[in-house]
Design a protein that fits this description.
This protein has helices at residues 68-80, 98-107, 110-113, 121-125, 153-166, 191-202, 228-250, 258-268, 281-287, 290-296, 352-366, 412-424, 439-445, 456-469, 480-484, 503-512, 549-562, and strands at 21-26, 42-52, 55-57, 90-94, 137-144, 180-184, 217-224, 274-279, 304-310, 321-326, 328-332, 372-382, 394-396, 402-404, 430-435, 451-454, 474-475, 493-494, 520-525, 531-532, 543-544. The protein has 563 residues and is of the alpha/beta class. Helix 6 (191-202) packs parallel to helix 7 (228-250) and helix 14 crosses helix 17 (549-562).
Length: 563
């Protein structure tokens, strides 16, 4: 059976990543809006375990629902397979019959007995408080959390992601193949964190593969002691947004190019009250968007500029306005300053900033965040064609500023300059711009930590938000001397400094020149964090990560709350 996608189809986007059906259930099923009934077949029960001073500790429901004798029995089972409760440790325990369990525990030879073990429904039912009608889990997956008093929301997200990636499809002797039906007690440590971590960890992108495939997980039911309604709605909007950004970044560049991408954005926003305007090549020429045109003129696929406007009802006239800008280079060869061929295929991800911005605006509308948001998204393909911009050319940006182009592979800042000037015409109080901008970001901070620059107070505010939601952004300086290095002999500014030092901050200085006076702004460089070309980790898959979607959503909510 080919998996059905829980993400809605979008015209023009040939493939969506698969995310399991997610639900949230209160452990007191008698409460109104407590959630759905636990499935009659539970393939895997996920429980948190902890690292105590004396070794493995079991704490929290569903463990607390067991008798002291049953808790001891569970502890012995986990100990027998080497569980210590250390952070990230995964221990899979079969649901043994009482007779088998006694035998296995006494011999300590659990691994040899696993294949012969059977499920004891009577004992298993007691493991899930909300599980009326269930036959109990086929497996128990114990995920290590580290010390119980040090568990953060990010620890829960990571544990949930690791658990999701560790779950295998159930073995079936008959019937259509299906993914695992999972119940997770991680929600008792933080419902939204568990939902987001489980869903994003389970995300599967298969692109244009034609073979039939059944995802590892069909559904995940998260147990909670919190009110499920608002938590589930917020988590689902966040999951959809990150999944959309991942889908866009994962899409091959022969499918996702400026014209098609603009159409996909319009389709993705159709179900919301976000309005979309697309400027084609002729409109860009007429209005003087020289940076976008200069970068795109080497490609047979013309550039576009997409404008999104979210204007919620019933907000005060003096409410803060936020402008978002995201770099959308749908493929980056470097242009005439051609990149080395090694791993150039990763440059499908050079529109990661635009994907994050688009997904965040749509999420803001779905969540009815009470703040006015506009997004300006420049789209171009950087190719070394016969009409491509040459090193030494001078481009005139929207608004009139001129740039001497010394390196055509420093193209992202050229399209962003146009977009920032246009975004500032909306008179925003805040501007959040994000881009896969510099290799220097990876040199300075590695592949997982975004660099955040800009107005000092707003920079620090956004960095704290980024760390809170798990995107791990870090505030970076803009030393004055690095800005001085951008002075040009023939234009208002040049696009590189000409030396190796402080490349991430140099790019930040360049962008700062185009931000209108009085606007609080940040630039989030996600050159490494937007795309993971290594192994999956935590709730981050291989390829597109969705960074920094959650940072932007949380920043919009913070501005709506605090101004």
């Amino acid at each position: 059976m080919t998996a059905t996608n829980s993400s809605s189809p979008i015209a023009g986007l040939p493939s969506r990543g698969f995310v399991p059906q997610m639900s949230l259930v209160h452990t007191d099923s008698t409460l109104e809006n407590s959630g759905t009934v636990t499935p009659s077949v539970i393939d895997t029960l996920v429980i948190p375990v902890f690292e105590g001073e004396a070794g493995l500790e079991l704490t929290g429901a569903p463990i607390d629902a067991l008798t002291a004798e049953q808790q001891l029995e569970m502890w012995k089972l986990l100990i027998s397979v080497g569980a210590k409760g250390t952070a990230g440790e995964v221990t899979v325990v079969p649901n043994l019959s009482a007779e088998r369990r006694s035998e296995v525990v006494s011999t300590g030879n659990l691994s040899a007995q696993v294949q012969e073990s059977t499920v004891d429904p009577e004992t298993a039912e007691e493991l899930v408080e909300a599980g009326a009608g269930s036959t109990g889990p086929e497996k128990i997956l114990a995920i290590g959390m580290g010390p119980a008093d040090e568990v953060s929301a990010e620890d829960v997200r990571v544990a949930a992601g690791v658990a999701s990636r560790s779950i295998k499809k159930p073995e079936q002797k008959e019937g259509e193949p299906r993914g695992a039906r999972v119940v997770s007690a991680l929600g008792l440590l933080g419902a939204e964190a568990a939902l987001v971590g489980h869903a994003l960890g389970a995300y599967e992108y298969r692109g244009l593969k034609t073979a039939e495939h059944t995802p590892a997980i069909e559904s995940i039911e998260v147990l909670t002691g919190e009110d499920p309604a608002d938590t589930l709605e917020h988590a689902q909007a966040t999951i959809r947004a990150v999944a959309l950004a991942r889908d866009l970044v994962n899409t091959p560049s022969n499918v996702l190019y400026p014209e098609s991408y603009a159409g996909i954005i319009a389709e993705a926003a159709k179900h919301t009250n976000v309005s979309v305007e697309v400027l084609d090549e002729a409109a860009l020429e007429e209005q003087g968007f020289g940076g976008i045109l200069g970068v795109g003129q080497g490609s047979a696929r013309g550039p576009r500029l997409v404008r999104l406007d979210y204007n919620p009802d019933k907000i005060a006239e003096d409410s803060p306005r936020v402008a978002l800008v995201g770099k959308g280079i749908t493929f980056d060869t470097g242009g005439i300053s051609l990149k080395p061929p090694a791993k150039m295929w990763n440059m499908i991800s050079d529109m990661g900033g635009s994907a994050a911005v688009v997904a965040a605006v749509i999420a803001a509308a779905e969540l009815n965040i009470p703040v006015r948001v506009t997004a300006t998204v420049p789209l171009a393909e950087n190719m070394p064609g016969g009409e491509a911009t040459r090193p030494g050319d001078v481009l005139r940006h929207y608004g009139g500023t001129t740039t001497e182009v010394l390196n055509t592979d420093a193209e992202g800042r050229l399209v962003l300059a146009d977009a920032i000037v246009r975004a500032c015409e909306d008179n925003p109080d805040y501007l959040i711009e994000t881009a896969t901008l510099t290799g220097a970001q990876m040199v300075a901070l590695g592949n997982r930590t975004p660099g955040i620059m800009g107005s000092m107070d707003f920079r620090d505010r956004v960095a704290m938000i980024s760390q809170r939601v798990g995107d791990a952004g870090w505030p970076m300086p803009l030393p004055a001397e690095l800005g001085e290095a951008l002075k040009s002999d023939v234009a208002d500014i040049k696009n590189i400094s000409g030396n190796r030092w402080g490349g991430m901050s140099v790019a930040g200085h360049y962008l700062k020149n185009f931000v209108a006076e009085g606007v609080q702004w940040v630039h989030i460089d996600v050159a490494g964090p937007a795309y993971n070309d290594g192994a999956a980790y935590g709730y981050t898959p291989k390829r597109a990560t969705g960074s920094p979607v959650r940072t932007i959503i949380a920043a919009l909510e913070d501005i709506a709350l605090k101004g």
